[in-house]
Description:
The chain contains 9 helices and 13 strands. The protein has one domain: Oxidoreductase, molybdopterin-binding domain (Sulfite Oxidase, Chain A, domain 2, Alpha-Beta Complex). The N and C termini lie far apart (43 Å). By secondary structure, the chain is an alpha+beta fold. The radius of gyration is 19 Å and the shape is globular. The protein binds the ligand Nc1nc2c(c(=O)[nH]1)N[C@H]1C(S)=C(S)[C@@H](COP(=O)(O)O)O[C@H]1N2 and molybdenum atom. The site of ligand MTE has 17 residues, from loops.
Amino acid sequence: MLIRRPADIAPSEITPRALFEDRRRFLQTLSGGAVAGAALWAGFPSTARAAPQKLAPLTPSPFNVKEDKTPYKAVTTYNNFYEFGTDKEDPAANAGVMATRPWTVKVEGLVGKPRSFDIDEILKLAPLEERIYRLRCVEAWSMVIPWVGFPLAALLKQVEPQGSAKYVEFISHYDPKIMLRRPVLDWPYREGLRLDEAMHPLTLLTVGLYGEVLPNQNGAPVRIVVPWKYGFKSAKSIVTIRLVEREPVSSWTQANAAEYGFYSNVNPNVDHPRWTQSKERRIGEFSKRPTLMFNGYADQVARLYQGMDLQKYY
Length: 314
Ligand SMILES: Nc1nc2c(c(=O)[nH]1)N[C@H]1C(S)=C(S)[C@@H](COP(=O)(O)O)O[C@H]1N2
Ligand SMILES: [Mo]
């Protein structure tokens, strides 16, 4: 196993950006149009191809599920990232053009120490862990993904949330030059959590999967993963984290509040208005499996919702 972090990789091993940009222009000229990231390197010798960067060392986690992992190929080609298109294969085809370095995440709002974090600073904030989590999409399919990251709480503690901060809002990168301009959702993509949900040890600030840096289509360079909630709560390619007093309105709730609530905890007993949530199709499996309360994380998170009517706060 490689024991390296991106910061430790010699500059000579990384293709300089200028070279990359030049090749892209060259290829765009050749094809007379935008070139999808996956196609960018086609035709170049393998030494010129950006090798997937290993993230290591990885601390094992007590939260890992024991079920079979969804194959890398499916995890990285069957995606929801509407900024890059609404079909499942669109993000893998289109997200390659997003530049993920340099990248800063601004943490602001009701905090004692607002600041921006460079992605390289984020990578050094806490030990990287492998977290094998179930991901349950609201559309009733699911995967098991070995993420790499550390609890979001480690970052939030750095900025010292104030007593008045009750919620955390996450804002994704939006660049109309390379992303979908149709108002499918109100861009930029916005999501939110209650502060105690955001501070929960399961809530992962995620920088990789399968031991490598996140592919763009999975939300590079940094996203959150909230495994007991429907997948859309896990915002990708985050640029702003804002601590606020009132419940933020997410892009999905804004689009259709009756179908996508603020909490969106995985719950087999509360159906989506247009389909049942009692079962799910695990990608790669033939028959459906029952959906678990809180996606199987009830022992860890049920206490967060004690006394709440989960039909009402769906
Ligand atoms: N910015 C942004 N984040 C997003 C989405 C999106 O369209 N845009 N889709 C969400 C949905 S619906 C799901 S199921 C997960 C999918 O994550 P994955 O493609 O890495 O499996 O990302 C979530 N995060
Ligand atoms: Mo989803």
